[in-house]
Amino acid sequence: MPVAKGYLAMVLHAHLPYVRHLEEDTYLEENWFFEALTESYIPLIDVFDGLIRDNVDFRITISLSPPLICMMTDPMLQHRYLKRLHKLIELAEKEVIRTEGQPEYHRVAQMYLEKFKGIRKTYVDKYRMDLVKAFKQLRDSGKVEIITSCATHGYLPLMLTKQAVRAQVKTAVDLFVSVFGTGPRGIWLPECGFSPGVDEILKEFGIKYFFVDTHGLLYATPRPYYGVHAPLYTPAGVAAFGRDVETSRQVWDMQTGYPGDFYYREFYRDVGYDLDIDYIGPYIFQNRIRIDTGIKYYRITGKTNYKEPYQPDIARDKAAEHAGNFMFNREKQIEHLAANMDREPIIVAPYDAELFGHWWYEGPQWLDFLLRKICYDQDTFKTITPWEYLNKYPNNQVAKLPMSSWGHKGFNEVWLDPANDWIYRHLHQAEERMLELANMFPQAGGLYKRALNQAARELLLAQSSDWAFIMKMQTAVDYAVRRTRDHIAKFNRLYWAIKEERLNEEEISALEAQDSIFSNIDYRMYSHHSSKIIPFPLRTRNIFLRHDRILMLSWEFPPKTVGGLARHVYDLSRALVRHGQEVHVITCHVPGCKDYEVVEGVHVYRLDHIPGEQEDFLRWVFKMNEAMAEKAAQVIKSVGKFDLIHAHDWLVAHAGKTLKHEFNIPLVATVHATEYGRNHGLHNDMQRYINDVEWGLTYEAWKVICCSKYMAAEIAQIFQLPGDKIRIIPNGVDVANITPAIIEPGFRNKYALPEEKIVYFVGRLVPEKGVQVLLEAVPVVLNQYPNAKFIISGKGPYGDHLKWLADQLGVAGKVFFTGFTNDDTRNKLLHAADVAVFPSLYEPFGIVALEAMAAHTPVIVSETGGLGEVIEHEVDGLKFYPGDFRALAHYIVTLLKDEALAKRLDNNAWDKVTKIYNWDIIARDTMEVYHEILRLARATGYIS
Q1: Residues 6 or more apart from 66 whose CB is under 8 A from it?
Q2: Domain carrying residue 513
Q3: Among 218, 193, 247, 213, which residue's Cα sits nearest to residue 383?
Q4: Is residue 378 located within the same domain as residue 427?
Q5: What CATH number does residue 401 fall under?
Q6: Domain CATH code at residue 629
Q7: I want to staple 458 with a disulfide (CB 3.0 to 4.6 A). Which of 27, 372, 490, 771 is the partner?
Q8: Is 299 annotated as a binding residue?
Q9: Is residue 865 over pLDDT 80?
Q10: Is the full-model pTM beyond 0.90?
Q11: Digit-coded pLDDT (tens) for 726-757
Q12: Ligand-binding site membership of 406 (annotated)
């Protein structure tokens, strides 16, 4: 295959301002979002899905702005859009009937009807109204690079403070991580607005590249060797790509660009304005205000008001012709550039995504033709993403970039104009006030924290570049002015209410409901002390309830999940934060994760990679503890001393003890299981060593927390602990984390036939989990209930033996080993199951049983350890003696046959989960232990 002489990087910037009003049918501007979904975003998704289906080799980059992501995932807007889509289909059906005697219009009406039904099929049937899922799948295909933009598309060069710029970037990156699971590699700076220093903030949040307009690169110092046809590195090491003028002109130019062809659809002639008001009234805005419906019957025709009927087939041929022309021009351009460069050039072609479909109706067709033609009809160049090009050419020229934008005349003129310049004194004052609040209240809790977070939301929303742009362009001016003033007014009300300590919960709740963007926002990003290491180190004022600063040590934390420990630390730390505690977690390295991030208010620090875990585990644990203690010392140096250290299990014992003595900080330990209990005794030197480490941890700890009476008795006996040193706090379950967003209609069919009932186990495949007992029960169950299917999820060293055992028992066809499942699949299986079975031989608690109960699945557990305490036999579940496979089989058959019993147990179990095993209750109990330790430490003079 010929080697490409150069590359084309097409970039689509998808953004709309955040328009979400609780009052339905009140704001015309909500239609912006609905139009863009129907005319641009969903058609583009269909194009890319089709290319992937047909195995077309292509690359494209799409930036999804945070407001757009939030609107796409908002249930209220999703259902409003569906309602709007049904109206469009209804109108198109009426138009097909109305135009029956007018063939030239009738075929266009049929086109719209077919299109709108196709849009509904994609939106509802294929993606279940979750378009972010569609973009995730496109990204996962490897063909589409998804990047971010700033939080509310704020225009960075006109912001007053570094903290305000940083907040725009941080909020965007945090949202992207929460939605896509990893950080964005690139960012679309709003309006391509760059000013020196922005690159340092981008680097802080792991951004690898951004885009500037042509002059933003050409005027760099020193001048770029390759013009805009290769990236530059800024002094901070972030790559800047420049827009290619020629490709932009061919598509964007109002006079000579493709969208102006006379055979393309006329944008400005819509039936919303052309048809009789009594007929069109139900399909336009309330009070019979005429708006675009999306049904347009005419082509551009010419530059006069005379318009001829639109002919879709001719327009489609024109799109193919223009795609071929664009490709031909790129071939010639790249051949010319390649002859004068010592590397393959890159042509960066950025466009607003709404151009394709909304403004230029045939744009998605053109793009489809273009990407297919590039793949099959030439071999001069290939499409590429900026990230792929940086990997191909990691060494690039370093230069300082000037301030620039892609607005008129290339600088600030559009966003700083007599029509809009009045906004900046208010925005700048709000920035300064937000910084003042963040530094005055670095550790707020309760109502104050909610108010401060809402103030941050209002500032971000007021900063949207869209409002200034609309004022300048004189379009929806009244709306833009009203939105700017409303957000500034809300911010100022919150500012004075916080300062004067007169917060009103009802008012704050109302504001949260009105402007609900960024549910996980953290106002502390505006602190002057904000940095990558720790955003909020100092206390300057404390008008809140007493809170503690907790340092948690855990060798696993999501996404690193070996057993139940990760989930426990994750849920407990988040619940403590909700109760006003400041929690910092130090944990192991996870590939692809940041070394520092804030996860729902929890500060998470990850160690550097430590090799050797598989070769010599104990030596690796020792090195991990050394690194953990060193990292903790660095954090303490940055943020100050912690009130307590909370160590989870023996794997972090050495670090906990070291930090306790070095910094004079009380230590509390949670023992999740013991080596003695796991192995039913101590049988070798390694087990005896671990047992000694566990004893040392419980000896050094001021209090020892365990999850059940069974565990309390075990550790009291094994480690000879006095009873007043042990505290029993059960594990919990977050019901929201167990509820899948949606279960696809065919999901269950992947695992069982429609007539089969599912018996489900999930857990580590190790002997103490008792899966071998479940397998022995399978033949007995099938003898009495042939339509049972057994699903086993998990991995572990016992997995191969269990598969062998299923084969030996002759039940392999009725047992499905899924291997490790992610949380989403596990949750779906828990909900799909008819019975969940946990036949452990040793189990300190068994949090997975709670998860099954939270999924409304009846459970059967063995009468061992903490499992036996969770379940009350024949009240909220069924219990059998460990190892008794016949009793287990009996209870499985009972629940499969007796649906009334299963329902009663399920209802009682749900009631228990929500009332007893609730993380907020568990967090309060844990805080009581913390306070008990601190009172004792102060009373004895251990701390002041």
Answers
A1: 148, 149, 150, 151, 152, 171, 172, 175, 176, 517, 518
A2: 423-526
A3: 247
A4: no
A5: 3.20.110.10
A6: 3.40.50.2000
A7: 490
A8: no
A9: no
A10: no
A11: 999 988 887 767 776 567 778 888 999 999 99
A12: yes
